Amino acid sequence: MNGLEKQLQGKTVVITGASSGAGRAIALAFAQNGATIVIAARREAALNEIVAACEALGTKAKAVVTDVTDAAAVQQLAKEAAAFGGKIDIWINNAGVLAAGTFEQTPIEIHDQVIRTNLLGYLHGAHAVLPYFKHQQYGILINNISVGGWFPTPYAVGYSASKFGLRGFSESLRGELHQWPYIHICDVFPAFLDTPGIQHAANYTGHHIKPAPPVYDPMRVARTMVALAQNPKKAATVGSAATFLKWAHFLFPGISRRMTAGTMEAYLKNAPTIPATDGNLFKPVDYGASIYGGWSTPISQKKKIIGAAIIGLAAGLILLSRSKEA
């Protein structure tokens, strides 16, 4: 075990949204580095599986069934984590949901629940753990935000609102904590991931949806968070597609929005039809508890797809920009 790995030995790490996808990957990555793991989500059976997997790696682990939309439940999570680990060193806000559909045809309670989970859930986590961090005079809060914090997604307005809101939340909190140099707020911005998240999504488009390629291995997010726990910094990006989309929207906001909307509309015209569903927004589902969602592109094709997507979008942005100037 090298010096960096030893930094995490015995550290107590709390991870929300840990029953599948990136959260599950994050739990295992920290367990492999000797951390004490406290995992939270709504699915008890899935959490118990991860506890067993962490313990098999030789570390302590505890599951706390938690709905992050319930502030009192998140406070209880922090209390149990501190009692289990003796302290809380790292808190990872990761729980998130997705809803797709036109804004007005998606029920307002769906938009509300997306905001409650993705935005208020993170505020609940920070509000619960900061008193522990301040008492200790150190701690690391890691927020898994996604590329959606930079790049708006048409037909997922509530999701985009929550992710843009998270950037403001982190920046404001960072400013407020300027007198606490050993309390760090770290944001992670991954591109589209190969997780079960899309299968869990609320869907009011009337059509089957899937993530746009390229999709990335969620273990990359897990490794990034381990690195941030060892060497905190303000932000980390996962995947070249995330960096490209960030700059595309920054440089050509109107054009990139229209192109994204047009691509989604073209896809939905030909996608198989399905009935509307609220997915896992209000209650957990009994499927999709693995790290992966089965969306991965074969490695031999991935670089071709990334290159073609970037070149095509860049060319489109330049042409559209020039046409506007003409």
| Mean pLDDT over the residues | 91
Q: Looking at this structure, what is the CATH superfamily?
A: NAD(P)-binding Rossmann-like Domain
CATH topology: Rossmann fold
Order of helices and strands: HEHEHEHEEHEHEHEHEHHH
Q: Strand-residue fraction?
A: 5-15%
Task: State the helix count.
Answer: 11
| Rg calc | 20 Å
Q: Into how many domains do the coordinates divide?
A: 1
Major sheet summary line: 7 strands, parallel
CATH class: Alpha Beta
Number of strands: 9
CATH architectural group: 3-Layer(aba) Sandwich
Q: Tell me the distance between the termini.
A: 61 Å
Largest beta sheet: what is the strand line-up? 3-2-1-4-6-7-9
The amount of helix comes to 40-55%
Envelope shape: globular
Report on the structure:
Helix content is 51%, strand content 13%. The longest helix has 29 residues, at 108-136. It has helices spanning 3-6, 21-32, 44-56, 71-85, 108-136, 157-176, 197-200, 218-230, 240-251, 253-270, 299-325; strands at 12-16, 36-41, 61-65, 90-93, 99-100, 139-144, 183-190, 202-203, 235-238. The chain is α/β, with parallel strands linked by helices. The chain has a single domain (3-325), classed as Rossmann fold (3-Layer(aba) Sandwich), CATH 3.40.50. Mean pLDDT is 91; it is low at 299-308. It is globular, with a radius of gyration of 20 Å. It has 11 helices and 9 strands.
